[in-house]
Amino acid sequence: MSNCLFCKFVNGDIKPNTVYEDDEILAFRDINPQAPTHILVIPKQHIATLNDLDEMHEALMGKLYLAAQKIAREEGIAEAGYRTVVNCNEQAGQSVFHIHLHLLGGRDMRWPPG
After folding, report:
1. Which of the residues are catalytic?
2. Quick one: CA dihedral 67, 50, 39, 82, positive or negative?
C-alpha cells in the first residue's frame, strides 16, 4: 500500500526505531509513547484491521504475540508485566490502518484501559 505509513517502514522508505525484525514481523518504538516501553509489533504483510483477518492469518497473528513476548523479555518488562493491545477501526483508536499490536510496559497499568 503506497500510502500506508507502516508499509513505508517495511519497505525501508522510512526508518523506524526498530527493536525487532524477522522475515514476517517488524517491531519499533512508538513515536508517541503511552508508557515507558511502548513498541508497535506489525506484520510485514499489509492487513488493514482485525476485521480483515481470515484463517490464513492465524499463524501470523500468533507470531506477532510471540515476537511481543520475546521483546518484553529483552526490554526487561516480562516479569513485572506488560499489556498488549490491538485497536480495530477509528472508534477504538486505530489511526494507522495496518494491523499492529501495542506492547506497553514499564509502569502500572490501570483497568479499565479507556
Report:
1. 100
2. negative
